[in-house]
Design goal:
Two copies of one chain form a homodimer. By secondary structure, the first copy, chain A, is an alpha+beta fold. In chain A, 48% of the residues lie in helices and 14% in strands. The longest helix of chain A has 14 residues. The N and C termini of chain A lie far apart (43 Å). Chains A and B meet through helix 1 and helix 5 of A and helix 1 and helix 5 of B. Chains A, B: Keywords: DNA-binding, Transcription, Transcription regulation. Chains A, B: It comes from Arthrobacter glacialis. Chains A, B: This is Transcriptional regulator. Chains A, B: GO terms for molecular function: DNA binding; DNA-binding transcription factor activity.
Chain lengths: 103, 103
């Protein structure tokens, strides 16, 4: 077996406010973020009841990961998702909470 | 003379988080918002030193107005712009401050 596949994540310094706000401007993506904020860490994509197709859903998770909002890790054939709360709060204090409260 | 022309503004209830976040996801629009937040009310569009053409600038002001972030009023041949701080803070508490702090 080779090494586990891994997905690219921006460092906190690489996160851009443009990408963060743009990612959060979509209601499906905010649903994902709200579910991650309200539940336990590391939820599989399949655990989200989203009103979109699987490929659209995959796209939304990728946009969130590339913005730096969520982490994604392979676990077998699943991808587990987590909210990067601490890093986001350090980089953009208050932003995540304000968006979640407004949602 | 007819009545003063007026521009459409969403009421606080009509503001959508999608439109607000999408409007704020652009650096030129955040520059406008930051200048309005830091200065006096009712600044003419010409008072903003923006690195874009006049028509692009006009577009950015319109996106901000249509989202509910700024007010625009005709004053003679100029348009005066103001930040809708109070209404935004009531509708989406903490959001404007978090974005301005992150900018």
């Amino acid at each position: 077996m080779g090494p586990a596949r891994s997905l690219e994540h921006p460092t906190p310094e690489q996160m851009s406010l443009d990408s963060i706000l743009s990612a959060l401007a979509d209601p499906v993506r905010r649903t994902i973020v709200a579910q991650l904020a309200g539940g336990h860490d590391d939820q599989a994509c399949i655990a989200f009841a989203l009103p979109v197709s699987k490929s659209t859903s995959t796209h939304h998770f990728r946009v969130l990961r590339e913005a730096g909002i969520i982490s994604q890790q392979y676990r077998g054939t699943s991808i587990l998702n987590g909210l990067r709360t601490e890093e986001l709060n350090l980089r953009f204090p208050g932003l995540l909470d304000a968006v979640l409260a407004a949602n």
